[in-house]
Amino acid sequence: MSTQFLYHLPVEQTQWKVEGQTTTAFTWEYEDGNADLLKLYGKGKKQQWDAAERLDWSLDVDPDNPMGLDDRTIAIYGTDIWNGLDAKGRAHVRRNLQAHTLSQFMHGEQGALIATAKIVQTVPSIQAKFYAATQVMDEARHVEAYARLLHEKVKLAYPITRTLALLLESTITDKRWDMTYLGMQVLIEGLALAAFQRIRDTSSNTLAAGVNAYVMQDEARHVAFGRLALREYYPHLTDAERDEREEFVVEACYHMRDRFNQGEVWENLGLPVKECVEAVEKSEYMKMFRTRLFSRIVPTVKDIGLWGPRVRKAYEDMGVMEFAQVDAQSMLENDGRVAEEFDAKMFVEKALGTQ
Length: 355
Description:
Helices cover about 70% and strands about 0% of the residues. It is mainly alpha-helical. It has a domain of about 230 residues: Ribonucleotide Reductase, subunit A, CATH 1.10.620.
């Protein structure tokens, strides 16, 4: 079935095209000695996988709760609105919220696909071009996996949110290669890792958990790629250049935090949007979730050197400064181990016939 028939709004009302300028950088230095990037490139080659084969698409998905998530993760849970819904109404809320989440993952991965193709074109280092080429394949696979999950199992999709669209647009249209890295590899990918982790670690559905576990294995490498490249480049910025990038980080983080009000879903369900958005703002679970979204971003921003007073003040305001002490590298390495453990779990469950 065409995706056009899955969207709750016509694509004609929600699509947009991005116009921007790109400078193509050729390099004639093929041995610049960046051993860390070459090591990451080697890992990227070895960890390629086939979404059609690594995941068991024959697994059933509950249409009333596709990702098998606890109702307490729903922002309106326990409110008068939730308590007033019958079983069918609650199932409708679950399915739409999860379709909305997966749809943003899918659209975001397409944005990453386009941004990484641009990185291949614009980045000056040959080693960075090599690694970015492996990431292009990664991102295509991620779009494939989320699209298949939505088409075959959930059978419902949502358009891209305006906030995510604006962030992708600003990341893709900037002609400076490091801004594409900063927007995509550090901010969008960092946010995505935290969002994926929630599903990977809490979903009771093996297929939904598996998609996110395997995507996270790739994304961990992508964030590491951004850290390596920007950590070397940013010490050479002028004060004005660094200030511009820190301003971009602050604005983007506020936008990402505030986009999780799920207004499109409440409107589509015919629920009172204002009351639902207020419930999102008051929800203790959503407050915790919004905070943990920055668990991957904060230590990376600090590590690459964008740690001026403006950034620190913003993170203090958001209540996420605690993540500045997190060992980002250890978290990324753990994402790879969890994916490998998931392979073993899938193998055992299939052998025992418990899937």
